[in-house]
Specification:
The complex is a heterodimer.
Chain A lengths: L9 E7 L27 E5 L5 H5 L5 E7 H6 L3 E4 L14 E5 L7 H9 L1 E2 L2
Antiparallel strand pairs in A: 1-2, 1-3, 2-5, 3-6, 4-5
Chain B lengths: L1 H5 L3 H5 L5 H10 L20 H10 L16 H16 L6 E4 L5 E7 L2 E7 L4 E7 L5 E4 L5 H9 L1
Antiparallel strand pairs in B: 1-2, 2-3, 3-4, 4-5
Helix pairs in contact in B: 3-5, 4-5
Chain lengths: ~120, ~160
Amino acid sequence: MGKLVDENEWLYRRGYASPEKKYMNPDGTATSRVFKLREKEKDLSVDVKSMTSPETSVKDPQKFMLFEIAHRQVLDLNLQAVHDPLPNEHNLEANPAHALIVGMDPEDEIMPGLLARASRRVL
Amino acid sequence: MQALIDNYTAYAANISGSSNATVDEAFKTFTPVSSIIFQFDVPDIPYLNEREIQLLREYKRLEDNWDGEEAKAPSKRALMAALYLVKVLQAFGQKVFHVAPGPRGEILVDLRNKNKSIELLLYEDRFKFVRFSETERPEQGNFELNMLPGLLKWLNG
């Protein structure tokens, strides 16, 4: 497991929001589905805020919204974020800011809702 | 009395404005649907959840990888159940805050009232609910349609 992200860090998580951004809540906040593990995921992909920029993290602002959550709040939920820098391979760009929120249970529906409610929109 | 309750079909009668076949199929999705007694007067607000109904119809067109990050296409059963549920809620005057597709083919039906919210997660093979409140610990469990009156009572209480 990677090194623990500093507890004072903030984390970015992007969510698909195109077209017309109707996959997000009507008030622009994230739905719990933004923080739900995909079938192939064991941990939740995020970016460490201090190591990137909102524009880099969101990649395509026409298709995605960007949300941020304090790592301290993640820790308060008994989860934790660890560094997981992505190398440049498999046709993917390198992403040194990449991290994982570990400790989530795919069957748990409470945690995605709590993470969404603790997040706020950046882009 | 039990037989009367078990044969109670107020939902289907109240929401049969659209295709009866679709309603019947959706109704079966929630089986067993029995012993359901709503404690609410039914206001007539036919377009209360029209936006959400329209969104669900649009979500039917989503295919695998609809978000470019390998999300599964919404399950047909989940969509049918969500559409039925939103219409039931409309018939009982309950505004739906939002509906949204999830990465595992599920549909989220989100209900809110002040500092409380209920998320209904409709998957292909199971339905779940989560209650969120600022003053209580979140609670989750399996969802069946006959739990709806109690959940709405908690939400609006």
